[in-house]
């Protein structure tokens, strides 16, 4: 959960700065009005924008020195390249599904949930689209989601236009269903 909070902070940091740079209250209100209510509320509640726990750095075995990361530069990168980075996040989420499946596939599990997991794994392993070749793996249901044979060729993950079945956080939720 801390990692998600950190990513949210990175994404929002640039937006908060942009809102604070606006000169008039009318400009701020105009920009805020275009945002989702939860995003708008987060920005209004952000009192300042400095790292609370010091600078971000990565450990290095080389000379026992840390590599300092410019958090504002990183935040701008997230903000300005979100489409590019989202594609990589979806690929990483797909890899998580594939690896989890490979580690657990030895059992002969025939549940609706396992079938759902199986089809998600296939989609992740075949370029991000459902590649339904095993028609015996149905029903495939998880919570309120149902994969059907007619989903063949559709996106596993929702894209910018909302086409697809699951969101980037769903693989973690799906995997915790088994715990």
Your description of this structure?
This protein has helices spanning 2-21, 25-33, 37-44, 71-80, 82-104, 112-125, 170-176; strands at 56-59, 66-69, 140-142, 145-147. By secondary structure, it is mainly alpha-helical. The chain folds into two domains: 2-80, no CATH class; 83-176, no CATH class. The strands form two sheets. The chain has a two-stranded antiparallel ribbon with strand order 1-2. A two-stranded antiparallel sheet has the order 3-4. The longest helix is centred in the middle third of the chain and has 23 residues, at 82-104. The chain is globular, with a radius of gyration of 21 Å. The chain starts with a helix and ends with a helix. 15% of the residues are buried.
């Amino acid at each position: 959960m801390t990692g998600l909070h950190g990513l949210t902070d990175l994404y929002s940091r640039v937006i908060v700065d942009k809102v604070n740079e606006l000169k008039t209250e009318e400009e701020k209100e105009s920009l805020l009005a275009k945002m989702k209510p939860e995003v708008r509320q987060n920005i209004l509640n952000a009192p300042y924008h400095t790292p609370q726990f010091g600078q971000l750095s990565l450990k290095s075995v080389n000379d026992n020195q840390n590599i300092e990361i410019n958090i504002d530069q990183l935040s701008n990168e997230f903000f300005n390249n979100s489409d590019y980075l989202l594609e990589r996040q979806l690929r990483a989420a797909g890899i998580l599904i594939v690896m989890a499946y490979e580690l657990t596939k030895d059992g002969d599990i025939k549940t609706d949930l396992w079938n759902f997991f199986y089809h998600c794994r296939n989609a992740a392993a075949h370029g991000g689209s459902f590649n339904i070749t095993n028609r015996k793996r149905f029903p495939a249901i998880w919570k309120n989601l149902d994969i059907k044979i007619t989903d063949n060729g559709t996106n596993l993950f929702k894209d910018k236009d909302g086409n697809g079945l699951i969101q980037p956080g769903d693989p973690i939720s799906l995997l915790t269903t088994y715990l």
